[in-house]
Amino acid sequence: MRIWPALAADVICILVFAIVGRSSHAETTDLVGVLRTAWPFLAGYALGLTLARSWRHPVARPSALVLWASTVVVGMALRVLTGAGVQLSFVLVTAVVLGVLLLGWRGLWSLVQRARHRSGHSAVV
């Protein structure tokens, strides 16, 4: 898979996380509110993208784990530094949800690619 579709999928996952989180707390889901919630995690993701050099193999497991960890850890650190709320339950939910989203689509992608390879169909890149 090329980097741009993977990057788009990851950013969408982070935005979905922010939208669902805001909705579950009865906060508005307007663009400004969603970006206010998502920016620390997008920044963490960008750092992880650089650290893991994910543009080389955006779906690879080591890359995905660095992206996920960086998104969560840096996102939480930035929330603390900016005075946003960070409670243990929020950290745990964030880690699980972003793990399911960021790692989940990669797992599904890999399964589909393996199935296509076994059946003799060429992979779509």
TrEMBL record:
Transmembrane stretches, start-end: 36-52, 64-82, 88-109
Pfam families the record matches: DUF3054
Keyword Transmembrane helix applies: yes
Keyword Ribonucleoprotein found: no
Lineage: superkingdom: Bacteria
Keywords of the record: Membrane, Transmembrane, Transmembrane helix
UniProt-recorded name of the protein: DUF3054 domain-containing protein
